[in-house]
Amino acid sequence: MTTTHTGLDVRKIGGRIGAEVVGLDLSTPLDAGTVSELTAALLAHKVLVFRGQHLDDAGQVRFAAAFGPLTTAHPTVPALDGNEHILPVEGGEGARANNWHTDVTFVHTPPKASTLRALIVPPYGGDTLIANTAAAYADLPEELRLLADRLWAVHTNDHDYATHPQFRTDEAVERHKVFVSRRYSTAHPVVRVHPESGERGLFIGGFAQRLVGLSHTESRDILRLLQSYVTRPENTVRIRWSSGDLVLFDNRITQHYAADDYGDLPRRLHRVTVAGDVPVGVDGRRSHVIEGDEADHFTPKAA
């Protein structure tokens, strides 16, 4: 099926999320009209896939910057040498993101959008799964939606990856130390209103550690229940990478997961993220910092 966005060939690849943009060359700067059409397609499909682009680092940065000011690579993890905007994503011990999450939600102003570019991919495995959190919210029974509308979650970068025995290698522990070298904790609405589309989506994922006003046990059970709607197969799309592919996804209304099913084979992606705004809940309240600064070294301040 093809969806017409003026001059773009945009083909759905999932029932509720995802589309492939066919025939568009990203090796040269995009004009304003094309960027506008891509933005409309991104709002409609949440994830856009561009096959076989083979961009270099500068090309990926240029493409991402067409959608707004860029963040630096990460609040705590070092950037690629020579480019402050690029985060290398490699499948080393303790570095695999096989945990459903939305990028950098532990800061006050999480990214608007993320781009991933495949440099080295294994011959099998290593797919990225991406979920539509608006579809998840729409799936909730009415009484559960009403509860979710009122909840706030505390997101922190002091995540629990390294506490699992199978991940507690020396390399994993060192990576964890870097990740939490600055500690961040932010309260976000569990239901975020998208600033452009007005859609409501579940804004939770791996960095959401507890719910405001509830115990850790209550928080864990409710977050697990809500998260189960996000990861329903109907609400996800699976990206099978080939070297040179580029994926753009809306970080405000998706979660993603990198499947750890490729053994010790090499896998390398580069990530560039577009700066976002402060999340807003259904009652109009905005997120607020609990611990740490506003990460101005990572992302421009929202208006």
Automatic annotation (TrEMBL):
Pfam families from the UniProt entry: TauD (PF02668)
UniProt-recorded Gene Ontology molecular function terms: dioxygenase activity
Cofactor(s) required for function per UniProt: Fe(2+)
Domain TauD/TfdA-like as annotated: residue spans: 10-273
Signal peptide positions (record): none
Keyword Iron: yes
Protein's UniProt keywords contain Oxidoreductase: yes
Keywords noted in UniProt: Dioxygenase, Iron, Metal-binding, Oxidoreductase
PANTHER family assigned to the protein according to its UniProt record, in alphabetical order: ALPHA-KETOGLUTARATE-DEPENDENT SULFATE ESTER DIOXYGENASE (PTHR30468:SF5), ALPHA-KETOGLUTARATE-DEPENDENT SULFONATE DIOXYGENASE (PTHR30468)
Record-stated family: Belongs to the TfdA dioxygenase family.
Protein name: TauD/TfdA family dioxygenase
Organism field: Planosporangium thailandense
